[in-house]
Specification:
- It is a single chain.
- The protein folds into 2 domains: 121 residues, Cytochrome Bc1 Complex, Chain D, domain 2 (Orthogonal Bundle); 88 residues, Cytochrome c-like domain (Cytochrome Bc1 Complex, Chain D, domain 2).
- Helix content is 45%, strand content 4%.
- The protein has 12 helices and 3 strands, in the order H-H-H-E-E-H-H-H-E-H-H-H-H-H-H.
- Helix 1 packs across helix 7 and helix 2 packs across helix 6.
- The chain starts with a helix and ends with a helix.
- The relative contact order is 0.13.
- The mean pLDDT is 86.
Length: 284
């Protein structure tokens, strides 16, 4: 009987301690989620000419903005899971949208650093990708987003639920901390079918999954398989590389899932941009 009481006492103590720990971590995660960051940001040159708007449209489509923000950038709920309710904001100037309230600096701060106008960190905003956009392309993207037709679509705010707060409290995998608080160091390259331009485009679009050296890495999505070493494409040849982005099939016949390798989004780049990326990969 004494042994049973001892075991029950130990189990009860463990449960109490686990509850205290969970409560503390939920509080820690909740505080981290509500944290604000001070980041002054100057307005950049945001053009309004038709050529820049076309470039901005190209950046928005090729970088997958519609995957989270909807076909017409009207916003959508793209995940309703135990940890969180993930909402892609309505980017237009319609009801429920941010387009009528954001300044140029607000757009750039949110896109490049994942920080909202009120200082909150924007969870799940992949600013680690957009951070490397050069000034011309970042400005063109903002110009295009400002030109969107208004769509009325009022959505709930992003909600971090207790399980999400617990995860955020015990792990660095979920964070709203802004990407790159310092000024960006970006590759300067002239647009063209060159290895230099291919390196720039790879930095903006490829390295987030394949690693800074393009030798493979873990994509931001923890459920995704490891991204492969991209040096292997040198053995494919340019034609096979270009054909891969038509249907996701590599020379060995393996078809890549567009969920993890968005070859369908890369098709927006066009032959010249993809050729430049291939030329860069040839230098590795």
């Amino acid at each position: 009987m004494k042994v049973l009481k001892l075991i029950l006492g130990v189990l009860l103590s463990a449960l109490v301690l686990a509850g205290i720990f969970a409560f503390a971590m939920i509080g820690k995660g909740g505080s981290a989620f509500e944290q604000t960051y001070s980041m002054e940001y100057d307005d950049a040159m945001v053009p309004s000419d038709s050529r820049s708007l076309q470039l901005g449209k190209f950046i928005a489509e090729s970088h997958g903005c519609q995957g989270c923000h909807g076909k017409d950038f009207e916003g959508l709920i793209f995940a309703d899971a135990p940890p969180f309710l993930a909402v892609g904001t309505n980017l237009t100037s319609g009801a429920g949208g941010i387009g009528s309230t954001y300044s140029d600096a607000d757009w750039l701060r949110s896109i490049r650093h994942g920080v909202a106008p009120d200082g909150r960190g924007l969870m799940i905003m992949p600013s680690e990708v957009y951070y490397y956009l050069n000034d011309q392309e970042a400005g063109a993207l903002v110009a295009y987003l400002k030109s969107l037709d208004p769509v009325d679509n009022e959505l709930p705010s992003f909600e971090l639920r207790p399980l999400g707060k617990l995860i955020m409290g015990v792990s660095d995998d979920m964070s709203t901390a802004p990407n790159h608080m310092r000024d960006a160091t970006r590759i300067e390259a002239e647009r063209g079918v060159t290895a230099e331009w291919g390196e720039y485009r790879s930095t903006v679009m490829c390295q987030v999954c394949h690693g800074g050296d393009m030798q493979g890495g873990q994509p931001p999505d923890p459920e995704s398989m490891m991204a492969p070493d991209m040096r292997v494409v040198k053995s494919w040849g340019l034609d096979a590389f270009l054909e891969f982005f038509e249907d996701g099939t590599n020379p060995s016949g393996l078809v890549s899932s567009a969920q993890f390798m968005p070859w369908d989004k890369f098709s927006y780049l066009g032959e010249d941009e993809l050729t430049a990326i291939y030329m860069y990969l040839e230098t590795l």
